[in-house]
Every structure is written in structure tokens, then in C-alpha cells.
């Protein structure tokens, strides 16, 4: 009886041990599977995060570019050299002012402004008077040439032919 019980106990224990081994191995497999799942999930999450990061990065770049171009177009305020009151407008290769002057200028408002600045600065190096600008109608109806002149030092320059 005692032996039988011990045998049963042992058998039970063996079974339990076997079970444990089996369970452990099942668990281990499951855990490995889980780990794999987690890895897959993590990879997916990482990929999604990367995609989100990339998207966010691209969005940021786009937003920055929009801001920069907005800033540039806002910052590029060029006063009309003729009326000196209104801001010049550029549409394609036409630079115009509401006072009525229109210049055909291919290189854009920025370059137009640069050239004006260069001429004014250059004149300032040898003369204290302010360079005056004047227009002359061109054969193209509605368009004007633009020149700068100083009656004091007789400096004369053409900005738009
Ligand atoms: Zn004007
Ligand atoms: Zn001068």
C-alpha cells in the first residue's frame, strides 16, 4: 500500500515533471512565438514610426518651404522708383506699379531690386545727392524704360532698356 502509494506519487510526480517539461516546452515555444509576434509587431511599429517620422519630416520641410517662400515674397517689398509710394508687383516678366509704370524685365523683381540698389549705392560712393529715376515710353505700348540720373554729378544709368 505504502509502496503503491509511493509509486502512484512517483508516477504522479513523473507525470507532473513530464507535464512540467511539456508545459515548459510548450510555453517556451509559445513565448518564442510571442516573442516573434512581438518582434514582428515591434518591426511593424518601428516601420510605422519611421513612416510617420518620414511623413512628419516631409511635412515639416514642406511647411518650412511654404513659410520661407511666404517670407521671401513678403520680405521682397520693392518700392516703385518713380512714385516711391507703392510697392512694385511682378507678374511673369512684367514689373508694374499702380502709378502706371510697367517694365519688361525677364530676371524678376529680386534682380530688379538688386540692380536698383547697386546703382544707388554706386552713385552714393561719389555723390551726396539722391539718384533720381525717370521713365520713357517704349515702342511697346504700355511699357517703359527706366533710367537713373543725377543733375548734380551728371551720372546717368539705365536699369531697364
Ligand atoms: Zn509707382
Ligand atoms: Zn550725383
Distance between the termini: 124 Å
Strand content: 15-25%
Strand elements, count: 6
- What letter string, H or E per element, gives the SSE order? HEEEHEEE
Largest β-sheet summary: 3 strands, antiparallel
Q: Which descriptor suits the 3D outline?
A: rod-shaped
Average pLDDT for all residues? 83
What small molecules accompany the polymer chains? zinc ion
Strand arrangement, largest sheet? Answer: 1-2-3
Radius of gyration: 41 Å
- Low-pLDDT ranges: none
When the domains are counted, the total is 2
What's the tally of helices?
2
Query: How much helicity do the residues have?
Result: 55-70%
Secondary-structure-derived class:
alpha+beta
Protein name: RPA-interacting protein C-terminal domain-containing protein
GO biological process, one term: protein import into nucleus
InterPro entries: RIP, RPA_interact_C_dom
Domain RPA-interacting protein C-terminal: 79-157
Protein described:
With 161 residues, this protein is an alpha+beta fold. It has 2 domains: 1-72; 89-159, no CATH class. The chain is built from 2 helices and 6 strands, in the order H-E-E-E-H-E-E-E. The chain has helices at residues 2-75, 108-124; strands spanning 89-91, 94-96, 102-104, 132-137, 144-149, 156-160. The strands form 2 sheets. The protein has a 3-stranded antiparallel β-sheet with strand order 1-2-3, with no helix packed on it.
Amino acid at each position: 500500500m505504502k509502496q503503491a502509494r509511493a509509486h502512484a506519487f512517483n508516477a504522479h510526480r513523473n507525470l507532473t515533471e513530464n507535464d512540467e517539461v511539456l508545459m515548459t516546452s510548450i510555453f517556451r515555444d509559445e513565448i518564442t512565438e510571442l516573442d516573434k509576434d512581438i518582434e514582428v509587431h515591434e518591426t511593424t511599429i518601428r516601420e510605422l514610426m519611421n513612416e510617420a517620422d518620414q511623413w512628419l519630416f516631409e511635412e515639416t520641410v514642406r511647411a518650412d518651404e511654404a513659410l520661407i517662400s511666404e517670407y521671401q515674397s513678403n520680405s521682397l517689398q520693392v518700392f516703385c522708383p518713380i512714385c516711391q509710394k507703392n510697392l512694385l508687383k511682378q507678374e511673369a516678366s512684367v514689373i508694374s506699379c499702380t502709378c502706371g509704370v510697367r517694365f519688361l524685365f525677364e530676371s524678376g523683381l529680386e534682380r530688379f531690386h538688386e540692380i536698383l540698389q547697386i546703382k544707388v549705392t554706386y552713385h552714393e560712393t561719389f555723390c551726396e545727392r539722391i539718384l533720381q529715376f525717370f521713365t520713357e515710353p517704349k515702342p511697346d505700348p504700355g511699357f517703359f524704360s527706366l533710367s537713373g540720373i543725377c543733375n548734380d554729378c551728371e551720372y546717368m544709368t539705365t536699369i531697364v532698356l
